[in-house]
Structures are given as structure tokens and as C-alpha cells.
Amino acid sequence: MADHGRVVSVEIAGQRYPIRSGLDPDYVNRLAVHVDDKMRAAADSAPNGDTVRLAVLAALNIADELFRCRETSRTRDGELAERAGELERLLDRVLMA
User: What is the pTM of this model?
Assistant: First the structure.
């Protein structure tokens, strides 16, 4: 029988959720805290929003964080590739001299 992980109980926006995961329980708890923080921030910006609306706002904020991190990573990867190319050309010139 496949191991589907253990159940970790987390609280988000005042609700308890049993999460079955093969991930480290501390990591799952940190994820839940992050989502809960985003839900609270959404509630602060839209105090009359219902839970579903707040969850959508939180999800959009989390997606924005992800997209920004990806873009930063792509930019950084491009800069590193450019530097590696410059170093390779410099090394080629030194070795050919």
C-alpha cells in the first residue's frame, strides 16, 4: 500500500483543516501560517469580504509573490549566464595568448 503521508492539522482563517501530506509537518505548518497571514491581510483590505472572496484575494497575492520570485530568478539566471560567458571568453583569450 502506498504511503500518502501523515495528517497534519492546520488552522487557516479560524478553521481547522486536516492536511494529508508526505511533506515535513513543520513545512506544512509554515505553509499554513503563510496562507493564514495572507488571508488576514486580505481581510484587512476587504473587511466585509466573505471567506471565499478573501481566499481568492489571498491566492492572488500568493500567485503574485510566486510570479515575482520566478521573474527575479530568471533575471538572476540570465545575469549569471552572461557573466559565465564573459569569464569563458576572458579565459579563452588568456589561454590563447
Answer: 0.75
